[in-house]
């Protein structure tokens, strides 16, 4: 398997590293993790990952370099590695709001850059990852696709849709988590202990997602099967809509997409 260096071992960088190892296709020793404060990587080092705080050195032997720092940290990192990255490597950036061209401009090279937008479910092999590039070839895209397919589902999209993908999938996991939390709070109010209410809400959400994944049916078709005439489901659903449920979701996703597009210039 390719040697991978992940620069920026925070929430998404570590989730990716864990997911790759969990997939069984990578050994911890195939993966180098960097962070500014290496003391925060002791657990990962004990697990077998290679760890370091020298980005320039860490990219030297990698076949794939994953950039997983914040947009505002990217320029410094690129300046650190520009002398040691080489043309045979693929640079994969999960940084929101930064184009392939932006990265190549700072690196000052015509490097292979592929953008990937995963979500934190990558840690358990359940990410929805969108991939885009400007100049990488189909073969190079395939290599990155294979990497992310080992940790979830992958869709290759146009680069100009990457901020939309960020909102829908990367931020989206937080939106669905909040929806589950809200359902469990409703459950407590109607009589369940918190841990039972959460378990019920989680399994119900999983059932809903699996129904769509397995049947490929439209959500409204599945909703129609639940809403008995004059019944309690349609009463609750309509009350939610009167209070702006779909509208709130749509507006939140639109605002996240707008924000994602401007993160690099902030
Ligand atoms: N958190 C998420 O669910 C997702 C985040 N992203 C993107 O991934 C990037 C990272 O986000 P998070 O993991 O949430 O942030 P984070 O703040 O948890 O992680 C960033 C990590 O980079 C490290 N770092 C900073 N400067 C560094 C340097 N010079 N060298 C090495 N490491 C350095 C920090 O110590 C930190 O551990 C962002 O650009 C974000 O837009 C993309 C998809 C999902
Ligand atoms: O909130 C953020 O800015 C990052 C990007 C997508 C998920 N987390």
UniProtKB/TrEMBL annotation:
Descriptive protein name: Pyrroline-5-carboxylate reductase
Entry EC number(s): 1.5.1.2
InterPro entries: 6-PGluconate_DH-like_C_sf, NAD(P)-bd_dom_sf, P5C_Rdtase_cat_N, P5CR_dimer, Pyrroline-COOH_reductase
Database matches in NCBIfam families: proC (TIGR00112)
Catalytic activity, reaction form: L-proline + NADP(+) = (S)-1-pyrroline-5-carboxylate + NADPH + 2 H(+); L-proline + NAD(+) = (S)-1-pyrroline-5-carboxylate + NADH + 2 H(+)
Pyrroline-5-carboxylate reductase dimerisation domain residues: 159-260
Subcellular location: Cytoplasm
Species name: Sphingobacterium haloxyli
Binding site for NADP(+): 68-71
One CC-aspect GO term: cytoplasm
Domain Pyrroline-5-carboxylate reductase catalytic N-terminal positions: 3-96
Alphabetical keyword list: Amino-acid biosynthesis, Cytoplasm, NADP, Oxidoreductase, Proline biosynthesis
Similarity section: Belongs to the pyrroline-5-carboxylate reductase family.
Family annotation (HAMAP family): P5C_reductase
Principal location: cytoplasm
Gene Ontology biological-process entries: L-proline biosynthetic process
Residues given in the record as NADPH binding sites: 55
Superkingdom of origin: Bacteria
Task performed by this protein: Catalyzes the reduction of 1-pyrroline-5-carboxylate (PCA) to L-proline.
Alphabetical list of PANTHER family matching this protein: PYRROLINE-5-CARBOXYLATE REDUCTASE (PTHR11645), PYRROLINE-5-CARBOXYLATE REDUCTASE 3 (PTHR11645:SF0)
